[in-house]
Amino acid sequence: xxxxxxxxxxxxLTVRSIVTVYHTQMxxxxxxxESHHFPELLYVERGPHTVLVDDILYTLAEGQAIxxxxxxxxxxxxxxxxxxxxxxxxxxxxxxxxxxxxxxxLTAYQRTLLSRIITPGVEIFERGRRVGDLVGMAPREGTQxxxxxxxxxxxxxxxxxxxxxxxxxxxxxxxxxxxxxxEERFGAVTAYIQAHLAQPLTVEEISSACGMSISGLKRLMNxxxxxxxxxxxTALRLGEARRMIRETTLxxxxxxxxxxxxxxxxxxxxxxxxxxxxPSEYAKSVMQR
Length: 289
What we know:
Helix content is 44%, strand content 21%. It has 9 helices and 10 strands. The strands form 3 sheets. It has a 5-stranded antiparallel beta sheet. Strands 4-3-6 form a 3-stranded antiparallel beta sheet. It has a two-stranded antiparallel sheet with strand order 9-10. Strand 3 and strand 4 (56-60) form a beta hairpin. Helix 1 runs antiparallel to helix 2 (145-165) and helix 7 (252-258) packs across helix 8 (264-275).
């Protein structure tokens, strides 16, 4: 009988437990903030969405995620209408450190893996369960062991692929420091834009105010949110417009003026193109809630 060469498989990363699985619409909520001993992955399905992590602002566009480090204090920074997916878990892998507290744009494959976690996960886990003295999320009665293992294995695949696609930062402290710097610069740009939404902003003005070249600003925005600077400005303006429609008595002309759209006709056209409904239709949908 022939002897065969056998390759022992490494165990690079193991997810030991899943703590929470959420798919939620923020509906203008702002959390008080929290910290815990395990990592938490937040993905923005529909955005933008701004979070505060250890006193640093991160604005995530649609398709982006952030993996909170264990014990990092995090909260929603501003009222948000984003739709987000959240999964928190326990893992002893030190390799994850290179992914912590960074804005990451997920690939199509990574988004597929995440959907294979969130979709069954929200069905499997029930909120408000009590097990002994512990309160939180627990599998519903009748959940099979193979279903839980599938969730864990898929989460491991997602994390391994994130490690693979973010490989240039692994084992390079100077690269990690550079990434942190870029994220801080992005937070400063976001803060400036939010403070000047009523003004007719230009790429030149934003880059000058933030101490950057135009090309440097464009690179930064492409890296951090996958959008050109002015597209990001429009996204923030529309987020504020939705808030003003919900929470104020201003008419659409006043909102357009307050947010630097120039005219109510341009505001309505952009709103319809990006939100999928006219301002009037959006106002009616809010009133029906």
